[in-house]
Amino acid sequence: MELQGGPSAISLTPIIDKVCMASPSKQPHTLIAGGAGFIGSHLCDRFLRDGHRVTCIDNLLTGRLENVDHHLGNPDFTFLHQDISTSADLGSDYDYILNFACPASPIDYLKFPFETLDVGSYGMKNLLDIAQKSGATILQASTSEVYGDPLVHPQKESYWGHVNPIGPRRVYDESKRFAEALMAAYHRELGVKTRIVRIFNTYGPRMRLDDGRVLPTFMKQALSGEAISIFGDGSQTRSFCYVDDLVEGIVRLLHSDEADPVNIGNPDEITIGQFAEEIVALTNSGNTISYHPLPEDDPKVRQPDIIKARRVLGWSPRMNRQEGLKATLGYFEEEVSKLGIQMAKPSAEHRPLGRMGNRGAIQRRRHQSEAFRHRAWKKIKITDPRT
Ligand SMILES: NC(=O)c1ccc[n+]([C@@H]2O[C@H](COP(=O)([O-])OP(=O)(O)OC[C@H]3O[C@@H](n4cnc5c(N)ncnc54)[C@H](O)[C@@H]3O)[C@@H](O)[C@H]2O)c1
Fold first, then answer.
1. Which residues form ligand 1's pocket by a CB distance below 6 Å?
2. pLDDT (tens digit per residue) in 285-318
3. For residue 364, which of 378, 375, 351 has the smallest C-alpha distance?
4. CATH ID of 2-199, from 3.40.50.720, 3.40.50.970, 3.40.50.300, 3.90.1150.10
C-alpha cells in the first residue's frame, strides 16, 4: 500500500506517482473517493476482490483509516490522504470513478456544512473533469434525501422531491441535488459516462457508533443498557438495506448503460418503533424506550421503489433484516467494548461467554457474525446482468 498526501498525510512513505502512470496491463484502475468511509471501504474490498487496482482518496473527515488498513501492503491498493474539493492533482488514468466522499449522517453534515456543500459542487466537478480526461465511467453516490419529506410513497426515480432548501437538512440535500445536476450536464453536454445511484438507508459493519444514525444509536443504547431514544411517536418509517446488497447493486449499475438515477435500497419498510423493539430482542437487553420531540423536517416515510433496479440491473436485495442485523451484531458489540462500556447482557444467541472471558468472547462473536455474513451471502446466486 502507498500512503500519500500533503503535509497532513498520516505517514509519509516515499511518494511513488503510481496513480499517474499508464496501466501496463488490462487490469482496471478504479478511484474510490471516500473509500475510508463506511460504504466506500466495502467498495474497496469488492473492487480489489474483483481484480481491480484501487486508489482510495479520503480526507478522513468522517472516515477512518482502520476501515481499509487490512489492505495495507497490497500492491493493488493506494491510499491518498486528500480532499477532492481542493486537491489539484488526483490522477487521471482511471477506468472507473466512484464518488462516495461526503459527510453522510445528520450529525456529520451539520457539523461540516461548508465541506458538505463544497464536496457536492467543487469535489464533484473535480472528479467529473478527471472522468472526462480519462474516459472513465463515473458513479455518484446520491441519496433518498433528494426526495426530501416525500409526498409520493414509495419513492420512484421520476419523483422530483419535496425539499426545503433552507431547512435543517439543507446542506446535504442540496449538495446532492446539485451533484446530480452536474452529472447530468457532463453527460448531456460532454458525453461523459455517468451513473447515479440513489441510496436508501444502508447498514452493516464499519458504521461509526457515534454517527447519530438510527442503527448504531439503537445498538449502542441497547448494548450498554441505556433507554432506546425514539424521536416522535415512532410511527415514522424507514427501510434498511444491508451493505453487501448495496455494493452488488452499485457494481451492476456501474457496468450498465443507465445514465439516469437508479434507486438502490431494501423496500421492506418498518416503523422506527418496531425497529427499536427488534434491536431490543436481538440484543436480549430488555431496554426501556424513551420518547423525544421529532426534529423539524424529519421524513415521515421512506421506502424505495426498486422496479427500475429490478428491470435494468436484474437486482434486488437478498439479505433480509433479521439476517443482516445478526451479521452486524458482533461488530457493534466489539465497538461498544472498545469504549470500555460494560455490556448490559450478552445476546441470547451467543451465551454463555465461556472461558475466554468477556473480551475474547466478544471477538469470537464478531467472527461468528462475519462467518454468518459470508454464509448468508454465499447462498445468494449472483447473476451478471451483462451476460
Ligand atoms: N450510509 C447510508 O445509508 C447512505 C445513504 C444515502 C447515501 N449515502 C451516500 O454514500 C456516501 C458514503 O456514505 P457513508 O455512510 O459511507 O458515509 P461516511 O461518512 O462513512 O463516508 C464518507 C467518506 O467520505 C470522506 N470525505 C468526506 N468529504 C471528503 C472530501 N472532500 N474529500 C475526500 N474524502 C471526503 C470521509 O472522510 C468518509 O471517509 C455518501 O456520499 C453518502 O451521502 C449513504
1. 33-34, 36-40, 57-63, 83-85, 100-104, 108, 119, 123, 141, 143, 199, 201-202
2. 888 899 999 887 778 888 999 999 999 999 999 9
3. 351
4. 3.40.50.720
